[in-house]
């Protein structure tokens, strides 16, 4: 009997020590309270699985990137911050535009610039055709960053285009996220390297001599041609984004084409990512130094079109949640309407409060998301639905897109602000992924985006409070469980 008591005492002591140890470990990382609590619950009640996930998805890789960023001799975003800024003083802008511009400038070093032109490409086929035409006409340089690149007809066609341009002497740089391209054979990208292009991967997935980066993905979608033509939005490279291939379904997405001075913001972000994916001393590489010198020597073009800021966010940046802050502030500034389209809706507490407050103030607040059966992430769809009741009670209107997958990521506020980019309205995009969003302060563009939203809304079904009250108990439990996990999604 004494031996039994001794064993129980040892087990209890070990359990207490484990709980204290992992609690201290999680608290010292200064996570958001909801994320810290979710990790603590997983680590305490599922210790073996929780520990495996914690070390697999931990922040060690990000801490390493922060140290490398701090030691880096060149920071392209900071270096180019003073280039081609809008000549209009900030004080001459009306509120709330002045506050939104200052927020982006102070949180992410995103200067206010003008573009020559901005075009919305709301049809994926049209968007792919525009990007491919730009690649074919490239004379000096092509820079592409993509989260997903499929080995299918579209992915191979793009590699063929890039190989042809590389062989013609055009500088071609391709950056892809390793986690997003797990199913893509490396031989596809080797073809571009053999043709004279440069290819780098972002984020280690395989076991190497450094921490894994599975949880921190480069979700940006950027195409830059000759330094003054840029694209960004929600489109990756693959047949599925055209509604083709195995398991094809209609696909709704949005890409934006920008020309002029403002493209410099996309270029600086791409170069930041290129540095992060390369060795730390790459900033001293003569070719890269020449690239930065070319940017600094760029003559002012004095674009006269729409005003915009290119805002990045990422877990190793000084202000991690720059895009989350920008979205929340924009929604809080809405007077008449705020319309949002997002495929993945898992808001944090500040965003949820901003949405409910705007609706309670009488703002026309509408949210467009995919129908649950069309969403490619069932767990995220369940988590999103768990927020519907409180938003509907506040006066928000929620619509589910019927034809297929809604993958567009944008919002518009009144007739003066529009945001288009790679960031979803979820905690992953806000705090874990590397994202980019273009913030436009232009009435014509905002009205054009409102037309796109209205067209998509005509093919959506509105979520009614009475339908929500008829949900089964298993469905509500599923939504509650998914919501509990939402800080980790």
TrEMBL record:
Ranges annotated as spanning the membrane: 7-28, 34-57
Q: What class of enzyme is it?
A: transferase
Q: Which organism is it from?
A: Nannocystis radixulma
Organism domain of life: Bacteria
Gene encoding this polypeptide? cls
Q: What is this protein called?
A: Cardiolipin synthase
Where does the record say this protein resides? Cell membrane
Which EC number(s) are documented for this chain?
A: 2.7.8.-
Is Transmembrane one of the keywords UniProt gives this record? yes
- For the keyword Membrane, the answer is yes
Signal peptide annotation: none
Q: What is its main location?
A: membrane
Membrane-topology annotation of the record: Multi-pass membrane protein
PLD phosphodiesterase domain boundaries: 214-241, 402-429
Which controlled-vocabulary keywords does the entry list?
Cell membrane, Lipid biosynthesis, Lipid metabolism, Membrane, Phospholipid biosynthesis, Phospholipid metabolism, Repeat, Transferase, Transmembrane, Transmembrane helix
């Amino acid at each position: 009997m004494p031996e039994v008591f001794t064993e129980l005492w040892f087990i209890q002591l070990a359990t207490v020590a484990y709980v204290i140890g992992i609690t201290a470990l999680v608290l010292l990382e200064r996570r958001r309270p909801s994320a810290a609590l979710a990790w603590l619950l997983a680590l305490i009640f599922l210790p073996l699985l929780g520990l495996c996930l914690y070390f697999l998805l931990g922040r060690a890789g990000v801490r390493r990137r922060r140290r490398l960023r701090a030691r880096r001799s060149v920071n392209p975003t900071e270096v180019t911050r003073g280039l081609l800024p809008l000549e209009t003083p900030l004080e001459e802008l009306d509120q709330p535009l002045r506050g939104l511009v200052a927020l982006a400038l102070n949180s992410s070093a995103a200067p206010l610039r003008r573009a020559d032109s901005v075009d919305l490409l709301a049809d994926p086929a049209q968007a792919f055709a525009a990007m491919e035409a730009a690649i074919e006409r490239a004379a000096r340089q092509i820079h592409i960053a993509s989260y997903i690149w499929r080995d299918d007809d579209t992915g191979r066609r793009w590699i063929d285009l890039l190989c042809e341009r590389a062989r013609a002497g055009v500088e071609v740089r391709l950056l892809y996220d390793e986690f997003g391209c797990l199913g893509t054979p490396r031989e596809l990208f080797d073809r571009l390297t053999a043709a004279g292009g440069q290819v780098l991967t972002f984020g280690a997935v395989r076991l190497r001599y450094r921490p894994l980066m599975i949880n921190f993905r480069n979700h940006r979608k950027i195409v830059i041609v000759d330094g003054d033509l840029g694209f960004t939005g929600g489109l990756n490279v693959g047949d599925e984004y055209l509604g083709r291939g195995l398991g094809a379904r209609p696909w709704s997405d949005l890409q934006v084409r920008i020309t002029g001075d403002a493209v410099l913001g996309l270029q600086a972000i791409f170069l930041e990512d290129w540095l992060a994916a390369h060795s730390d001393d790459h900033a001293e590489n003569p070719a890269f130094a020449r690239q930065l010198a070319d940017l600094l020597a760029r003559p002012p073009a004095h674009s006269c079109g729409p005003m915009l800021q290119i805002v990045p966010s990422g877990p190793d940046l000084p202000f991690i949640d720059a895009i989350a802050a920008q979205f929340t502030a924009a929604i809080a500034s809405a007077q008449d309407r705020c319309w949002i389209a997002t495929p993945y809706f898992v808001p944090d507490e500040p965003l949820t409060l901003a949405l409910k407050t705007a609706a309670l103030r009488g703002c026309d607040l509408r949210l467009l998301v995919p129908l649950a059966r069309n969403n490619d992430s069932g767990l995220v769809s369940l988590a999103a639905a768990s927020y519907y009741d409180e938003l509907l009670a506040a006066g928000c209107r929620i619509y589910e897109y019927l034809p297929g997958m809604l993958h567009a990521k944008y919002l518009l506020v009144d007739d003066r602000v529009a945001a288009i980019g790679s960031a979803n309205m979820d905690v992953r995009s806000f705090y874990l992924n590397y994202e980019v969003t273009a913030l436009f302060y232009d009435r014509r563009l905002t009205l054009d985006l409102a037309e796109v939203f209205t067209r998509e809304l005509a093919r959506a079904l509105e979520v009614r409070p009475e339908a929500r009250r008829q949900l089964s108990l298993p469905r509500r439990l599923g939504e509650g469980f998914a919501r509990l996990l939402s800080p980790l999604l």
